[in-house]
Design brief:
It is built from five helices and no strands. With about 80 residues, the protein is mostly helical. The mean pLDDT is about 80.
């Protein structure tokens, strides 16, 4: 833990990246907790939320992102709505 704190003190962008990754994780958590449509779709397609989590982890840790495709995806406008149920 001390090494991590030293890294954040010496390199401000490391702390920013860590913070952004934590925010992304929180978004996924909120989508899973509040998005019943997403939860139902995942169960239909993959069988369980655990399988989805394992595949998501593999994508985030093993797949290199193409900068051009990422820029195209980020340029699209999307809207996420949560149900009230």
């Amino acid at each position: 833990m001390a090494e991590l704190l030293d890294l954040f003190q010496k390199n401000n962008s490391a702390a920013k990246c860590f913070y952004l990754l934590m925010q992304i994780g929180h978004i996924f958590n909120q989508l899973m907790a509040k998005g019943s449509l997403l939860r139902e779709r995942i169960r239909e397609e993959m069988g369980s939320l655990k399988v989805f989590a394992q595949k998501m982890w593999a994508v985030l840790t093993e797949v290199l992102v193409d900068p051009v495709r990422l820029a195209q995806a980020l340029a699209q406008r999307i809207q996420i709505r949560f149900d009230s149920g």
